[in-house]
Amino acid sequence: MGKSGTHERLEARPIDDDSLMFVDDDHFVEETVCLVTGAGSGIGRATAVAMAANGTTAVATDVDESGLAGTAELGDEIGVDGRVETVAGDLTDDDDIERIVETAADHGTLRYLANVAGMQHIDAIEDFPMEQYDRMHDVMLRAPLYLAKRTIPHIRATDDGVGAVGNMASVHGHYVTSDKVGYNVSKFGLRGLTQSIAAEGGDGLRSFSISTGYVKTPLVTEQIPDTAEQRGISVDEVIDDVMLGQSRVTEMMDPVDVANLFVFGFSKHATHLNGGDLLFDGGMTLTYE
Description:
The protein is of the alpha/beta class. The chain has helices at 42-53, 65-78, 94-106, 130-156, 181-200, 218-221, 224-231, 235-243, 255-266; strands at 32-36, 57-62, 83-88, 109-115, 163-168, 205-212, 276-280. Helices cover 41% and strands 15% of the residues.
């Protein structure tokens, strides 16, 4: 795609029947529950809707109650075969985490957990505020561990023990860039959590991670115009040169693209995906000029 000089490249593809992946899986029924964090927007919203579109009951959680309402409304708009239920909660609060998991389990048979919630802070290590690091650690690494700890017993208690924990990692779980130490450490840690769950799983319980480059989420796209203005360059130049300069695919992913990876990862078609990482980065980390 050539440089257009517009901001159209920041608009995410709609979540609808044309963009969603649909799979045939006996566990993808309304009785099956998939708990999705960070589901008030972006990848989390897309994942909750995608799993509900595939027939499950997606329990969407986020600290943003209005965002959760928007996720439920989107599910209604596209007419998902399953359901989107919501539960607001703070992933830095253990009591909230326990309540979120138990609420999810009350909606059916809890088999799937998608740890998507994330945040970003940019500063050099010597300037990085530790209170911000602690919050990032709590939301992006400690909470996924505790959510898995509380979810796994529900999976093991099912009639066949089949279920999975999917963790939203990143290219920054493979290599790092400067001034993102909190994000880098958390994403590397998520890959370690993924492999730890796999090591203790078996008999149907799996784990996997997903690593992408830049995705058209509010966390990313809202920063791009400011970056363009600060650097005195166009939005297209920020995308092409600053963000995707190492990538062989010259456009950012859409949230629904990532949601489809979670659908695949949770499905029977990914039986041998256990402890592994789905690296969909457009060639960013494994190729070079």
